[in-house]
Amino acid sequence: MSVRLGSQPTVILSSYEAIEQAFIKQPIVFNGRYTTFFTKVATENAGIIFLDDLPKWNLHRRFGLKALGGGGQLGYSVEMIVREEVAQLCDKIKEKVNQPFVLEKDLFLAIANVIGVLTVGEKPTETKHEALREKFLEAITTLRDDNFAYMMMAVLPWSRFIPPISKNFKHMLGTRDRSNECLYQIIDDHASDIEVKHPRDLVDLYLTEILDKKQGYTRKHLQHNVADLHVAGTETSTSTIRWALLFLVKYPEVQEKVHQEIDDIVGKEGKISLHAELHYTRAVIQEVYRIEAVVPLSVPRRTTKDITFMGYKIPKDTQIIPNIWKVHNDPAVWKNPEQFQPERHLDSEGKFVKLNQVIPFSIGQRNCMGENLARMEVFLFVVTILQKFQLCPDPQDPVPKLGALFGVFHSPEHYRIVFRQR
Are 373 and 78 in contact (CB under 8 A)? Predict the structure, then answer.
């Protein structure tokens, strides 16, 4: 359907076929990034997520994929970094077994540590730049808690002059500037002792390109690349894992099957392989991706020229929004889509089937750059926690609700879990 969001002509694609036709089969036309007043101010026309300059975007995306794949790690694989954070999180859970508590903050910091090590070589929880840790967490919290104001500014830029949105706007500018200052300090520290032949992280890799005078690489882009990866790579994985744990609490019969499969295939003390044949467990995770898409409308794209698409004329510079939520809840594809049914992702022999119609990271050239990392994190965190603990509801809330917070990210409401040692 076509709508106007403020003054912005917008086309919303609400079927997998339409999204595939646009993003896979005609990527050149649908590869632009729709930018708004808010995105321009927040990112200063740099970074990766909202960068519309296609040659620069291609350059930085290829670079980002290399860094997220562990290109700057000496002696460590990305998997090893994730496993270390999972183990430390489980140690924290052990300290609070048999009592209801909110896992959200500890889980969030564990995910943030993974991104921190890959990008700046430091965990936000341990960095010598204490100010960065505080400002980074402030930036994430601001994005999550003030996102209604941000969406208003994206659609109606003049709303930034109206209280209380004007207050949110000033807060956003202050948070951006403080975060930039901290990140510039980290970049300067890296530049002062960089070893070109032994890069430690994404910042070292990028500074090497600058030293080699590669065209398109600037400190401004580097700073916003790091910020983009932190913002996009923490809240999304954290929310997905929190949704998974919440569903397992709400449906104990599903949790029991997952426990049994892990015990049979891996064992209670065995090392969890990314390739372990945990078919039912993978079906559970894919059903979580389907039923609770964390970014239900993805990130808007832009048509780069006039096009006749599926019988309709779409002008150049039209905003294109893929309605992932509708794709995941289309009754023509999913029987009883509102019901949590992991079995829908298994074939007749009980084998896991990765379905094309589940697209939580979008598809095409502009899909989420951190998809492989996110899938690894979700799998290892969920399976390791379930290997070691039984998840029980808070006695004061024995039937947990599947409520979500309003905002850009579709995150679950805050809830408490009782972990019991297995």
Answer: yes
Quote the distance between the C-alpha of residue 109 and its chain's center.
Answer: 14
For residue 269 the two structure tokens come to: 């003390």
**Residue tagged 């890069």 (tokens):** 199
Cβ-contact 205, 67 below 8 angstroms: yes
Residue-wise pLDDT for 1-53, tens only, equals 999 988 889 999 999 999 999 999 999 999 999 988 888 888 888 889 999 99
What are the CB-based long-range contacts (under 8 Å, 24+) for 369-375? 369/48, 369/61, 369/64, 369/65, 369/68, 370/68, 370/229, 370/232, 370/233, 372/68, 372/69, 373/68, 373/78, 373/114, 373/118, 373/233, 374/233, 374/236, 374/237, 374/240
Task: Flag whether pLDDT at 180 surpasses 90.
Answer: no
Residue with tokens 């990008």: 119
Which of helix, strand or coil describes residue 420? strand
320 contacts 11 by C-beta, under 8 angstroms: yes
Residues annotated within the binding site are 368
Q: Per this entry, what is the length of the chain?
A: 422
What domains sit in the chain, N to C, each tagged with a CATH number?
Answer: 31-295+329-421 (1.10.630.10)
Worst-scoring range by mean pLDDT, 42-56, 113-127, 302-316? 113-127
The torsion of the CA quartet 411, 414, 415, 420, rounded to 10 degrees, works out to 80
Cα separation values, 218 from 72, 76, 206, 214, 242, Å: 18, 27, 9, 9, 36
Q: What is the pLDDT of residues 337-390, one digit of tens each?
A: 999 999 999 999 999 999 999 999 999 999 999 999 999 999 999 999 999 999
Token pair for 64: 């980002």
What are the φ/ψ torsions at residue 3 (nearest 5 degrees)?
-140, 175
DSSP state, residue 1? -
Q: Which of 228, 244, 420 is nearest to 342 (CA)?
A: 244
Q: Encoding tokens for residue 166? A: 């004007």
Tokens of 266: 């891996």
- 3-state SS class at 241: helix
Task: Return d(Cα 128, Cα 123) in angstroms, integer.
Answer: 9
Tally of CA atoms within 13 A in the half-sphere of 59 that contains its CB: 17
Query: Is the torsion defined by CA of 27, 30, 36, 38 positive or negative?
Result: negative
Annotated binding site for heme: 368
Give the torsion sign (CA, 195, 196, 200, 202): positive
